[in-house]
Write a structure and sequence with these properties.
alpha/beta, five-stranded parallel β-sheet, 20 helices
């Protein structure tokens, strides 16, 4: 704060203007004070005007102002009193009011609280006398930051029963870089250069991988079926069966099929096992071994009806195995089933559900689940540290505090403070059931240092005291 105070005073406080969701920012700041408010049993009231959602200003400056005003209110408000935070828009200005009941500021002191010389003199005197102080410059810093934002801050109090701090700030202009206009008569040219390298001879089984196939959309009938068999009579039979509903391409062996597929990918392949040049098993291995073609269903045909031959074909990666002779309707049913399965997989892959996983009974994105597991792991590793906070978790995850706050709130429905506390309480509940540690030992081990607060929060969650819970379990 001293550094920021000096920057604001000398005009070196850098502003980064953006559109800010004001209610969310205020809730984010309030999350730092939830436990203190509960300890003092202070009632918190939020009043956000509907027309105020986004405001164009510097996030860090607004956060500093709100944090110091609320910190000041929490410090001086007596137990069981009320703090109210109100936001509204009037005459193109954003107004933020922080009001606390139960204590006031005498008129003679109201001007001094913003006087930087008075504040720094008092701060210096406290330090010189060896007092440990964390307060005293917050309100003076608020005034300096508000002035940097071309705003105003005032205090209103009757001296005894209430105090209200009122901040008003205008929207800040967004700095924009305007690109130079393109001349209408300036032609846009794209130059593409190609180089042709000497082609190396490669084995047949590698050629398909080095020269990716180019799929062409099927526009006629139900799509393209590729039939591979060295027996012309079988190819003609399969063509007669399938030609009414599908386009049919023919190849005499696996290598010829690979050459054909450089022009167009089929929807399904019907392939014989025993063929010259490249047999069906080798062909399936190549097809299922590369990204571009592994999705294409392959039906293997064979006159070998032993179970060992069928297992070999399926282990190679074939999607179905059909013995010769076969019934035409059996083949048609297999093709329809495989196409339906591929369509279902494709639709699922393109749907939102493909990127979701379950987390505590809710469907969330996989990345969010990984993040929450990481956050929970961090909390468990430092659960005995009473100073564990959103700041620490943000540093450990390399995510901004605001982004982390939003993510935890969105996924769990809890603020980070509430989420950390819920994990502490769950761990305490587990230790009560599984160890012989005393309640006080468990309390400290789970990061609670206030016995009354621990008992109150535990009772709120489990509806019994820790000792009663242990006796029940």
């Amino acid at each position: 704060q001293m550094i920021d105070f000096r920057k604001a005073e000398t005009g070196h406080l850098k502003l980064d203007i953006e559109r800010i969701e004001i209610p969310e920012l205020i809730k984010f700041v309030l999350d730092n004070f939830i436990e203190r408010l509960e300890e003092k049993k202070i009632r918190l009231t939020l009043d956000f005007s509907p027309e105020v959602t986004f405001w164009q200003t510097d996030r860090d400056s607004i956060e500093k102002i709100v944090f110091n005003l609320i910190s000041n209110a929490v410090k001086y408000t007596p137990a069981e009193e009320t703090i109210t935070v109100k936001v509204e828009k009037k005459e193109e200005l954003l107004y933020i009011y922080v009001t606390n009941t139960g204590v006031g500021i005498k008129p003679t002191f109201q001007r001094q609280i913003f006087d930087r010389f008075e504040v720094l003199d008092r701060f210096e005197m406290q330090v010189s006398k060896g007092y440990e102080t964390r307060n005293g410059i917050g309100l003076a810093l608020c005034k300096n930051v508000v002035e940097v934002l071309h705003g105003n801050i005032e205090v209103d109090s009757d001296g005894e029963t209430y105090t209200t701090f009122e901040v008003s700030v205008p929207e800040q202009p967004m700095e924009q870089t305007v690109p130079e206009p393109v001349q209408a008569d300036s032609p846009v040219q794209a130059v593409v250069t190609t180089q042709t390298a000497p082609r190396e001879e490669v084995p047949d089984e590698e050629r398909l991988v080095q020269e990716p196939l180019s799929p062409i959309p099927d526009v006629e009938k139900g799509g393209l079926i590729l039939v591979i068999d060295d027996d012309k009579g079988i190819r003609q039979l399969l063509k007669d069966i399938l030609n009414e509903r599908y386009e049919v391409a023919e190849a005499t062996n696996g290598q010829d099929a690979i050459e054909l597929m450089r022009i167009r990918l089929p929807l399904v392949i019907v392939c014989d096992v025993i063929m010259p040049v490249m047999d069906g098993v080798k062909f399936v291995k190549i097809m299922k071994g590369q990204e571009l073609t592994r999705h294409i269903p392959i039906i293997l045909l064979s006159s070998k009806s032993t179970i060992e031959n069928q297992i070999e074909g399926l282990e190679t990666g074939a999607d179905a195995y059909l013995n010769k002779p076969f019934h035409p309707r059996h083949l048609e049913a297999l093709i329809e089933s495989l196409l339906h399965r591929n369509k279902a997989v494709l639709e699922y892959g393109e749907s939102v559900y493909a990127s979701l996983e379950q987390y505590e009974g809710k469907f969330i994105h996989k990345e969010d689940k990984e993040l929450m597991l990481h956050i929970t792991d961090i909390i468990h590793k430092h659960i005995d540290d009473e100073a564990l906070s959103l700041d620490f978790v943000a540093r450990e995850t390399a995510i901004s505090k605001m982004q982390l706050y939003r993510k935890i709130k969105e996924i769990t429905g809890q603020t980070p403070t509430e989420y950390i506390r819920s994990i502490r309480l769950k761990h305490a509940e587990k230790l009560l059931k599984t160890t012989n540690k005393t309640v006080q030992e468990i309390m400290f081990f789970c990061g609670f240092n206030n016995k009354a607060y621990f008992y109150r929060e535990f009772s709120k969650k489990y509806h019994v005291t820790p000792k009663e819970y242990r006796n029940q379990k």
